[in-house]
Amino acid sequence: PIPGKRNAYCIIGLRAGLGEGGGHGWLLAQQIVHGEACYDTWCIDPRRFTSHANVEMTSLKAIEDYQNEFRFHFPHEHRPAGRPAKTTSLTSVLAAENAEFTVVNGWERVEYIKPSADFHPSLSFHFDETFDIVAGEIKNVRDNVGLCEVNGFNRFEITGPDAYDFLDRMFCGSVTRKPGRVGLGYLLNDFGMVKSEATIANIPASDRGENRIWYGSAAASEFHDMDWLTQHINYNEKVQIQSLTNDQTILLLAGPKSRDVLSACSREDWSKEAFPWLSVRECFIGFSAATVMSVSFSGELAYEVHVPNASLYAAYLALSEAGKTYGMKLFGSRAVESMRMEKG
After folding, report:
1. Residue 153 belongs to what H/E stretch?
2. Which InterPro entries match (predicted)?
3. pLDDT interval class at 162 (50, 70, 90)
């Protein structure tokens, strides 16, 4: 489906239209007639690209693709056309710390911290020169504490008197309704196939707003999940969904000393009794308003610090200053991916 269009469908990303047209046309026809294809069609779904993928960028990427038609695309090779498309106030700050960037849904996201500004690993299908660098980042998270910017994470705010009944119908498991708690769930289609995975965070009413639910999922699912959710709101349900994806950024604090760092820059009680696993609360990091969740994809004690982009730099400075005492270092997405695989 084409995002934002009713009864409009297309397949994009093909390089041999005539040769592949029969099979892809068959899958497209299934979507039009039945609403779903028999195979996963995400790799050719136009909704995997979001607002940054305009005509100008598409032209640059198409030219780059044909220029490299007979070259292998290596792991961790990030080609330069159409970059940088999306950045935060920390992008230049982290670049000054020798950050190497990958691209996630157009966002420049830290991949790892280079040992020097002129460091360039070889492109290979084997382990390259970054292996020990990433291992060092993981070791510091395991033994001390690390900080990572996770920008572009998909974030919807769901409100309305029927919000919980709507989510109970959409998720295949029960959705927690307890204030200040976080849950994980899966959205399925009519064939029982997974459409999305999302966290649900129940934020109690405060001076920042009424009771509301935060829905979080992968960056690339921004358009896809919004389509799936909005098209399933019944005509008599009072549910509102607002995207905060481009308004908030996560600072991920991970490691056994992460609670100490958080306590040093926020006056809340961060003990495990006051703020247990799978909790969410609004607070201040330094003087910056933030929403913190006690969740982890690293296998270590960790907190997601969600900060409005306008005060992101201030929150980063507060955490960085607090982390000096505890050996805090920056880490990137490669370390995150390695740790989450080990966690299982």
Report:
1. none
2. FAD/NAD-bd_sf, FAO_M, GcvT/YgfZ/DmdA, GCVT_N, TrmE/GcvT-like
3. very high
